[in-house]
Design brief:
about 375 residues; alpha+beta; 8-stranded mixed sheet; 3-stranded antiparallel sheet; binds flavin-adenine dinucleotide
């Protein structure tokens, strides 16, 4: 009996020590309330969904913004991985990279165009992004990709999809000018599907989210992200724009819109090929607030960045920044998925101008 009592005391002391340790740890780590106070309520949130994707107890949900839907355990993972959170990301450019203060450091610049008709028919520009992903999946370089498709129930509402077949990747081609909370499916990719080296297609803010994730407490899931394809981006819009201005104001049926593009204004291509212009002035009120704090146009932290401006219509401008990005483009061109052309530095004239405009107008994030 005595032995048992002593054992119990020792056990209790042990548990109390553990408990104290846990409480101390909890106090040191910011909870969801901190993320809410420092990021979400200030309008900095970019809609990448990394907080949703890393929450171990799945109590962060989202609509237009992330929101707490259960009890936070104060593990600190959400604020740790948030690209608008505390702390800085440390990402050195590769040694041999050409330094560029506007579009970010790079190894080379190319123009890329898909060789497959089914991709060109669906793609936004040259279909280079879709071709790179398909080629990398086919060769086993990646085992899947987080891409953004349209919600089948609500046309033009973007939803993230974990594509593990070329058909799925192709089905998600084309730009949706909104924020898809792409990393909300992170846990599904790593835990459920057990992907080990997948790709993500991201806007610049979410590209920063990947790098934060890879240096955060949740770096195990971040490690499984092998290839980061970053898009050029001036801003993303609330889906209300589509409902109120396009469907409501213009009385257009969303399912009849084949493609949406931003030139100076919004240009909608309807089924049958006719074009409808919507002035950017009408769209401006629908810009996500978080975009006003962003100073990155060209996804400077990606392995390879892709955009429309720079190259000719029907081609994608590709900026490779890391060996991984370069390898991915080579896999696509060597396997016949992608036609590539060398381009001169002149191709960067418009990306430079837009990148400068974005940096100049970015409102500093204050804490
Ligand atoms: C919000 C937004 C704003 C952009 N603004 C500019 C701009 O100002 N200037 C410019 O030159 N280019 C801009 N782009 C990039 C451009 O629209 C094309 O995505 C890029 O040129 C690649 O073309 P592609 O034909 O090679 O891509 P595709 O082969 O068509 O593939 C596009 C890929 O992007 C994914 N995707 C679609 N929408 C999103 C999204 N919202 N978030 C994350 N992934 C998505 C698709 O799932 C697909 O994998 C923007 C893209 C987005 C999403």
């Amino acid at each position: 009996m005595k032995i048992l009592a002593e054992e119990l005391v020792m056990k209790n002391e042990g548990t109390m020590k553990e408990q104290k340790k846990k409480t101390r740890r909890k106090k040191d780590r910011p909870d969801y309330g901190v993320l809410d106070k420092l990021v979400i309520s200030k309008g900095y949130c970019c809609g990448c969904g990394v907080c949703v994707g890393v929450c171990p107890v799945e109590v962060i949900g989202y609509e237009a913004l992330p929101k707490l839907i259960g009890e936070c355990i104060s593990c600190g993972r959400c604020s740790d991985a948030c690209p608008r959170g505390l702390g800085r990301i440390n990402m050195e450019p590769q040694k041999e990279a050409i330094k560029d203060g506007l579009v970010g450091s790079y190894l080379n610049i190319l123009a890329g165009k898909a060789t497959k008709t089914e991709i060109l028919e669906k793609a936004q520009d040259g279909g280079a992004v879709t071709s790179i992903l398909c080629a990398c999946l086919e060769s086993g370089y990646i085992d899947g990709a987080i891409v953004t498709r349209m919600d089948p129930e609500r046309p033009w509402k973007p939803v993230p999809m974990i594509a593990t077949t070329k058909e799925e990747i192709i089905s998600a081609a084309g730009t949706k000018y909104h924020y898809p909370f792409e990393f909300s499916v992170l846990k599904k990719a790593t835990k459920e599907l057990k992907l080990q080296s997948f790709s993500v297609v991201t806007r610049p803010c979410s590209t920063e989210g990947v790098r934060r994730l890879q240096q955060s407490r949740s770096k195990k899931s971040g490690k499984a992200i092998k290839l980061v394809v970053g898009l050029f981006c001036m801003e993303a819009f609330h889906t209300d724009f589509i409902d109120e201005v396009v469907a409501g104001g213009m009385e257009l049926s969303l399912s009849n819109i084949k493609k949406i593009n931003i030139k100076r204004d919004f240009v909608l291509t309807l089924d049958g090929g006719s074009l409808v212009d919507i002035s950017m002035k009408k769209a401006e009120p629908y810009i996500r607030t978080g975009c006003r704090f962003c100073s990155d146009f060209a996804s400077e932290m990606a392995d390879v960045s892709a955009g429309a401006v720079g190259t000719k219509n029907g081609w994608t401008t590709l900026i490779t920044r890391t060996d991984i990005g370069k390898e991915a483009v080579e896999i696509a061109s060597n396997s016949g998925w992608l036609e590539t052309r060398e381009v001169s530095q002149k191709v960067l004239t418009t990306p430079h101008a837009l990148a400068k405009r974005k940096k100049d107008r970015a409102i500093p994030i204050l804490r």
